[in-house]
TrEMBL record:
Record-stated family: Belongs to the Rieske iron-sulfur protein family.
Annotated GO MF terms: 2 iron, 2 sulfur cluster binding; metal ion binding; quinol-cytochrome-c reductase activity
Main location: mitochondrion
Broad class of enzyme this protein falls into: translocase
CDD domains named among the record's database cross-references: Rieske_cytochrome_bc1
Name the UniProt record assigns to this protein: Cytochrome b-c1 complex subunit Rieske, mitochondrial
Database matches in SUPFAM superfamilies: ISP domain, ISP transmembrane anchor
Occurrences of domain Rieske (ranges): 144-239
GO annotation, cellular component aspect: mitochondrial inner membrane; respiratory chain complex III
NCBIfam families: Rieske_proteo
Cofactor: [2Fe-2S] cluster
This protein's record includes keyword Hydrolase: no
Organism the protein comes from: Talaromyces islandicus
Length: 241
């Protein structure tokens, strides 16, 4: 339709340019419109360049996949499938194990850090009745070589009445050796040895008094001094950590 109107308009424009009589131009336009209408009637049905649906179905061919089919029995095929699946699972497990192992190896502490994690002390250098302070993992550790009288004093207390009830035997592995973190359980100051009202340690920051077993007896601290992990590899050595 748009072709028709553009052809008519072009014909009218050329007639106007050549000064044709208007009735001649109108008859010419009518002739063009009739020709176009008859052409449109002839091509009213659509013809696909790819043929009709029936022709397409007639040429549709499904290829044969027979040459790809296994020639073995079903049980043989299953065995092969299980073998492939099992092999892939095994390979994946080995890969995952190697990945996790590498990750843990990289993330674990290095040898120099592990060396700092433990401290060994020669106990024969600490006389009876004396304190020693060592540094372990950035914290002070108090080591007391207790006398027999101090051990007796620590055990004579009715520990059930204390603020943080704990018997002395639960705080030591050997009665003569008392090992504790030198960190006040109130706000973390370092208590002073052989001081305070109970002959143990005294924290000058806010006035906490600990007895000869490191148990809180007076002042604002809520808990006894903490006992770290330690062991005695032999009679004269102590390992902290
Ligand atoms: S920090 Fe020791 S009493 Fe407050």
């Amino acid at each position: 339709m748009s072709q028709l109107s553009s052809a008519s308009a072009a014909l009218l424009r050329s007639c106007a340019r050549q000064q044709l009589p208007s009735h001649v131009a109108r008859s010419a336009v009518a002739g063009v419109q009739q020709r176009n209408a008859s052409n449109a009637g002839a091509k009213s049905s659509f013809e696909s360049p790819f043929g009709s649906a029936e022709e397409a179905n007639a040429t549709l061919k499904i290829p044969s996949f027979k040459k790809y089919m296994s020639k073995g029995s079903p049980s043989t095929n299953k065995v092969f499938s299980y073998f492939v699946a099992g092999s892939m699972g095994l390979g994946s497990a080995v890969g995952a194990k190697a990945t996790v192992h590498d990750f843990l190896t990289n993330m674990s502490a290095s040898a120099d850090v592990l060396a700092q994690a433990k401290v060994e002390i020669a106990l024969d250098t600490i006389p009876e009745g004396k304190n020693v302070i060592i540094k372990w993992r950035g914290k002070p550790v108090l080591i007391r070589h207790r006398t027999a009288a101090e051990i007796q004093e620590a055990n004579d207390i009715d520990w059930k009445t204390l603020r943080d009830p704990q018997p002395d035997e639960d705080r030591v592995q050997k009665p003569e050796w008392l090992i504790m973190l030198g960190v006040c359980t109130h706000l973390g100051c370092v208590p002073i040895g052989e001081a305070g009202d109970f002959g143990g340690w005294f924290c000058p920051c806010h006035g906490s008094h600990y007895d000869i077993s490191g148990r809180i007896r007076k002042g604002p601290a809520p808990l006894n001094l903490e006992v770290p992990v330690y062991s005695f590899p032999d009679e004269q050595s102590l390992i902290i950590g």
